[in-house]
C-alpha cells in the first residue's frame, strides 16, 4: 500500500469534502458566477426554492409553475405535457445539470416565457441553480 | 421465381397465381404509399434532437407541408408552451419538415386541403379515423398515456416508424 504524505492526504480530504456537498463543476461555477455578477448581489438557495415552487401569473395557462413539468421533487424525473420524461433537475441526482451555458439559457428562455410570460432575471436564474445545486 | 412466359399446356395454375399475385401487389402498392401504419422516422440529427426534447420526433409524413410551415412559424406559442429556437436552427428544421412532409397527392395531404392548416396531428381526419373505434377517449386520460401526443405509450415501435395496432 502506498503511503501518501500527510499534507497531500489533508489536501485530498479537503477537496473531497468540498465536492461532496455541492458537486462542484467548473462550468457550473462559471455560470453561477456570471449570474451573480449580473445580479449584483449574492444568490440565494431559499429564494430559488420559493421561485421554483411558486405559482406564477402572466404565463401560459397550461404551465403556471416550474413544478407543472418538473414536479415538486427535483431529485425525481419530471414529465412533459406530452408525456416524455424529463431528467431530474437536482444536481445531486443529475450531475450534468447546469454545465452547458447555451442549454441553460435556451431552456430558461423558453420556460420562463411559458411559466411567467417574461424572461427570468439573472438573479432568479442564479437563485434557482443555487438551490438545485445544493439539494 | 414464378414464370408467366411459358406455361405448360393445360396448366393454367401458374399464370393464374401470377395474375392474383400481380393484382395483390398492384392494390398493395398505393396502400403502402398511403400507409397510416408506417411513417419514415426523422433522420436529420438536428430535427431529431430539437423536436424530441418534449415529445417524440413526429414523422414529417404525418402532416402536409403547409401544416409544418405554420407550426414552425409560431414556436413561441407551441401547443401551450414556448419552444423558441435560434432562427438558423428553426429555418433548417422547417426546410427539412417541408421537404419530407406528406406528398401533395397523398391521401393525408388531400384530406387536409383548404381552410386553415391543421396543426395537431391528433386533429387530422386520418388520425381521428384511425383512433376512433379502437381507442376509448378514457385511454388518453390514463396517467401512463397522459396525452394524445404520447404515441409511444401504445405504439411501442413508434420511434422506429411503426404505428400499427398494438
Q: What structural category characterises the helix and strand content of chain A?
A: mainly alpha
Ends distance of chain A: 36 Å
Uncertain runs of chain A: 9-21
Helical region count of chain B? 7
- The level of helicity of chain B is 25-40%
The name CATH uses for the topology of chain A is Cytochrome Bc1 Complex, Chain D, domain 2
Largest sheet of chain A: 2 strands, antiparallel
Q: Work out the strand percent of chain A.
A: under 5%
Sheet having the most strands of chain B: none
The CATH C-level name of chain A is: Mainly Alpha
Domain module count of chain A? 1
Question: How do the SSEs of chain B run, as a string of H and E?
Answer: HHHHHHH
Global mean pLDDT of chain A:
89
Pfam families (chain B): DHC
Keywords (chain B): Signal
Signal peptide (chain B): 1-33
Organism (chain B): Zhengella mangrovi
